[in-house]
Design brief:
The protein has 118 residues and is mainly α. The chain is built from five helices and two strands, in the order H-H-H-E-E-H-H. It has a two-stranded antiparallel sheet with strand order 1-2. It is elongated and about 55 Å long. It starts with a helix and ends with a helix.
Amino acid sequence: MGMEQFLLAREQVDDGYSDMFPFMDWAKAQGGLVDARLGVCIALVHDVLEGRQQVDMYPGVSVPDYWAMAHACESLRDTAREAGFSGAARYCEQERQFAVLMVEQLIGVVAESLASLA
């Protein structure tokens, strides 16, 4: 995937972000563990997208932790769906799909690197 395709994919993912606001307000109103769990998931997604949540892909190479982001988005999606926030659930699924796409891209980079060593 080229940079232009990547940027187009990100732009499409951002559609619907405003649907998250009522869902986040609902989560805050729930308080306790619901608010805390969803808050952690939202913070994790934000940190991955901002480059602050990283994982070592192999020695000396750190990349955004899209694996964790995919799982956080899945949790957010499921909770939003169960609570009746279909727009937020749709947005979270788009973000999850983006994270999975990025994981696939990273795996491709590693495979190419290993193949070049052989």
